[in-house]
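Predict the holo structure. Ligand: magnesium ion.
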Amino acid sequence: EETEPVEEVRPQSPVKPMTATEVKVNVSIPEAAERAAATGADGVGLLRMEHMILSLNQTPAKFIQENGEDAYIQELVQGIRGVADEFYPRPVRVRTLDAPTDEFRQLEGGDDEPTEHNPMLGYRGIRRSLDRPEVFAHELEAFRRLFEMGYDNVEIMFPLVNDAEDIYRAKTLMKEAGIDPDKRKWGAMIETPASALSVEGMAEAGIDFASFGTNDLTQYTLAVDRNNEHVADRFDELHPSILTLIGNVIETCREHDVETSICGQAGSKPEMVQFLVDEGVSSISANIDAVRDVQHEVKRTEQKLLLDSVR
Ligand code: PEP
Ligand code: MG
């Protein structure tokens, strides 16, 4: 005789739990902003600029050549604005462009991209931005316009930073673009072992926050290509070496009043959430579909910590 399969249902309150650790959401395409805001997230922990640019189907240089600098800047302003509106006054952390050359190459105008043996170890993120300040200036001008329009919930985040020197150079370019680093909230991603080991200097250089990009931090710490199926079983975001780096960064940042956050995929994993809350991370940013589960995992972990402390 057949029995009906029992569907497992995890009891979960429909109400957003109150937590000391903020839970934010990652937004990769501006079109998802409304759905992301509906999760009740405390803000956007990562808004990637890539999609705004890759969806133009032209490299920035090609787009500018055909449409002019102002049109390019306006594309960025509109893309960010849609998300900043949806979340206002909740903060939206916007990451400056971080597309590797092999992704740019697929676009019209991509033939001009440099050929690289290892694009993931090459010309991307803040390295490219610092090397091409005249191009980077357009992104910074988009931020300046947004601030002028009153979007004080927009924050700037720099990808693939290695050390304080990168931060000082980025800060200089912000000032040159008419953005006062002391009046705005800005910070860096922790994606390389070098950045994790340099966070004290980065704090002294003035960052307001450090955000763990565990997709890259895992790739670079373990020397495991995040897109290589042959070593996929070695891609372990919870590897003790990664947790040691993360724990040390959180401690250093706390001493310097710098916020910490995670915006890599691992932020959606319960074990990582428990570890981070235990270490005292300021916020966790998860994918839209994972936000509610992370909110509850954070709540459970905070309650356990509280009970442990009074027992
Ligand atoms: C990361 O590296 O964890 C990250 C969030 O950035 P991306 O996945 O865009 O490289
Ligand atoms: Mg990354």
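The two ends are 51 Å apart (CA to CA). The chain has a mean pLDDT of 94.
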